[in-house]
Specification:
With 451 residues, the chain is an alpha/beta fold. It has helices at residues 12-32, 143-148, 179-182, 213-247, 259-268, 281-293, 310-316, 341-347, 365-373, 379-384, 388-393, 440-448, and strands at 43-51, 57-66, 69-75, 86-89, 94-97, 99-104, 152-157, 169-173, 183-193, 274-278, 298-302, 320-322, 352-354, 411-414, 425-430, 433-435. It folds into two domains: 39-97 and 401-451, Urease, subunit C, domain 1, CATH 2.30.40; 99-399, TIM Barrel, CATH 3.20.20.
């Protein structure tokens, strides 16, 4: 029986509709002649090692991509090649599914030091669940091609963590003719940050609430209580409206819309997951109690310095997003506390995924997973943590995360193990279309290298 993943449960149909909507948009674009993005010809990758993730390794394999999907895969002797296919000899290469970064700021920032290029956070209020990443996502960011160069094809884009409820995450594909095409699931989850970073520690003259963790917890609790009250008012209004229609009486006045409270309702109803970020044991336990008080579905995030309560974490039976793995340990911790966290979680049966928590260095995602293998995480589990595990956590595993027939053809061809820093990515396919391995850096290199 498949393990129950709370974030994915009940959302497969929603995500399926998103992918279907996206396919419809592509069809409209093609019919209008604006931009042809659909795969025009079957593509065959022949002779490489297939890391399927879901069902082992296939040596001397063949993978067929057609109409943006994986149409067939297996050994060279078992797969019939389609007519008129473009056959690419990848003998000696390794083929694996596109990597998934479970938290980035891609499309929200360009130059960190230049405020006008940053759309990561709205600091006018601590509680901003009605902020939507998709409304700020910049599909033309120069950081996206850089990320693709290392085989990352999909990512969660999240607001900065300076607010406790900073807005809602989006799940994106890192290629497409526009932001509308790249935004696969617009409001896929909502961060709830409880690390202490969210305290308002301005000068005395400008002090704002909350200044303490007590204040943070109280403010969050009040927000969820207000949302519950708002839901009850909506329910009462619908009942009164139905009664008025039945009794042929004037329709009652609808409650005034409150976007902030409205945005919280799908999470209070368990339709979408909270991404609950904490680092130390005390913050973690406080945040989890709060989530349980309101029966929120949640995924744990960071928990980098919660080694002492990993058995408690395992008992929660929820996935954990780990990283950045290079974080410095606290003074009271062993040198390898953060490095070995993925392995310790895996040993306890916890499903993990890796995240870069960055935009400029999202390309280093596979190296975080590789680094964890040096501290006890099995290599096959490290690869799953940036492919299939991530897809399952976000409810898109029916489309992404492994090399399986019928899944979206997001495929990477590289010179070796994806977790090895010596490996070079040679080809990247998204929706079955080969994506040029170019970026601003490669263009500058080519322009000036001969001068």
């Amino acid at each position: 029986m498949r393990r129950d993943l709370s974030p994915a449960k009940g959302r497969v149909s929603i995500v399926s509709r998103k992918f279907a909507h996206r396919a419809l948009l592509v069809a409209v674009v093609l019919c209008s002649g604006i931009l042809a993005t659909a795969q025009q010809q079957p593509i065959v990758l022949k002779g490489g090692k297939l890391l399927t993730v879901s069902h082992g390794v296939i040596d001397n394999g063949v993978l067929v991509m057609e109409s943006g999907k994986i149409n067939a895969l297996g050994t060279t002797s078992s797969v019939k090649l389609p007519k008129n296919a473009r056959v690419i000899d990848v003998t000696g290469m390794t083929i694996y599914p596109g990597l998934i970064d479970s938290e980035t700021a891609l499309g929200l920032t360009e130059i960190s030091a230049e405020a006008s290029t940053n759309d990561r956070i709205e600091l006018t209020d601590e509680i901003m669940p009605h902020m939507h990443v998709y409304e700020a996502f910049h599909a033309e960011s120069e950081l996206i091609p850089v990320t693709r160069l290392n085989g990352v094809t999909n990512a969660i884009v999240a607001p900065d963590s300076t607010d406790t409820l900073p807005g809602q995450d989006s799940f994106v594909q890192l290629a497409g003719p526009s932001a509308a095409e790249m935004l696969l699931v617009r409001d896929i989850a909502m961060p709830l940050n409880f690390t202490g970073e969210q305290r308002r520690n301005e000068s005395w003259e400008k002090r704002k609430f909350p200044e303490t963790r007590m204040g943070m917890a109280a403010q969050l609790r009040q927000a969820f209580l207000d949302a519950q009250d708002y839901q009850q008012k909506l329910t009462d209004y619908q009942q009164k409206k139905a009664d008025a229609a039945r009794d042929k009486k004037p329709e009652p006045s609808a409650p005034k819309r409150d976007l902030k409270l409205e945005a919280l309702l799908p999470y209070l109803q368990g339709k979408k997951p909270i991404v609950l970020a904490a680092q130390g044991p005390s913050d973690l336990e406080t945040a989890v109690r709060l989530a349980q008080e309101f029966k929120l579905k949640f995924v744990l995030n960071h928990i980098s310095h919660s080694r002492a309560v990993l058995d408690y974490v395992a008992s929660l039976q929820v996935p954990v997003i780990v990283g950045p793995i290079y974080e410095t340990p606290m003074d009271y911790e062993r040198f390898d506390t953060v490095y070995s966290l993925p392995a310790e979680l895996y040993k306890r049966g916890v499903k993990i995924a890796f995240a870069s928590f960055d935009a400029h260095n999202s390309r280093n995602l596979p190296y975080q997973a590789g680094f964890a293998t040096g501290f006890g995480l099995p290599p096959e589990e490290a690869l799953k943590a940036i492919t299939l595990n991530a897809a399952e956590i976000w409810g898109v595993d029916h489309e992404l995360g492994s090399l399986d027939i019928g899944k979206t053809a997001n495929v990477v061809v590289a010179t070796g193990d994806p977790l090895d820093v010596k490996t070079d990515v040679k080809r990247v396919f998204i929706d079955g279309e080969e994506i040029p391995l170019t970026s601003r850096q490669t263009r500058l290199r080519d322009e000036y290298s001969t001068k």
